[in-house]
Amino acid sequence: MRHNRSALFRGRHFADEIIALCVRWYLRFSLSYRDLEELMTERNLSVDHTTVWRWVQRCAPELNRRVRRELKRTGTSWRVDETYVRVAGRWVYLFRAVDSSGATLDFYLSENQDAAAAKRFFDKVLAAANHPRPRVINVDGNPSYPKAVKRLKQERRLGRRCRCRTSPYLNNIVEQDHRAIKRRINAKQGFRSLEGARRTIPGYEVVDMIRKGQVRWLLKGDVSGTGALVWAWDPVPRDPSDPARATWRNGADRTGAANVWGPMSADPERDLVFLPTTSPSPDFFGGERRGENR
To answer: What's the pTM?
Structure first.
């Protein structure tokens, strides 16, 4: 195991690649933590499901933060809707927005469905650098959205000509988009706490953005590129005089442990590492790892 580990993985008992693999599978597919525990057992690696939960709680928000700055610009026709998520035995509201092409704008988890929650959601969307101010906001019949839009116009956060239009059929695109997120949530049978939901859902959303091709260097429908999930955990030296930086640039060290991960590539300018996530062979994991799972 490498000694110069990223702070995100420091102190963990498993290799960085194993953690990245489990987190990616959990966020991308409809798998539970116990499903991942079984998948790792098939590969001769003993990982408890609570260990995978800790990895997801730590990595999902960080992945969301780092990928956000690499997203493409979105359109000016917004489709806004909310869906229900079960948290600790009760229903909370997940506000979501996409543009006319289906690209995800943003999301917001709230315990309420009132105008104040809708305004906080719009504030979050407008704060992102890759979202231009909308010319039209398509909503369903929820009366909270027109009130929030009116307040934002008074604060000059939205243009005077921006329309808030009630159009259920135009909102079909966002209602269909809910399914990708709800499918993953239903596989986990909801969340036990609001804080856990707020740390996990960003991971679902950002991985779905990568699948849609919203990251600048990926095309929509590029399955192999989508599988090469962007992980920026490996420290890329930023000092041009550092010999290790030249190593990254020249590609002299581009394979993972046991050489089963295949070629890796790095972008030192953006501090990013591209890690292919094809299924490793069981030989990669070796024997059972003793001691505490972390």
So the answer is: 0.75
CB 13 within 8 A of CB 289: yes
Burial class (CB in 10 A: 0-12, 13-18, 19+), 204: buried
Would you state the pLDDT for residue 95?
Answer: 96
| Burial class of residue 284 (count of CB atoms within 10 Å of its CB; 0-12, 13-18, 19+) | buried
In the chain, how many domains are there?
2
Q: Side chain identity at 104, as an amino acid letter?
A: T
Domain span including residue 271? 16-68+219-285
**d(Cα 2, Cα 14) in Å, to the nearest integer?**
11
Structure-token match 């091709």, residue found: 213
Question: Is residue 256 within 8 Å of residue 264, measured between CB atoms?
Answer: yes
What is the Cα–Cα distance from 200 to 22, expressed in whole angstroms?
14
Given a contact cutoff of 8 angstroms between Cβ atoms, the answer to whether 199 and 172 are in contact is no
- Convert the pLDDT of each residue in 160-202 to its tens digit: 899 999 988 888 999 999 998 999 988 888 899 999 999 999 9
DSSP codes of every residue in 130-142: T-PPPSEEEE-S-
Question: Residues 114, 136: one domain?
Answer: yes
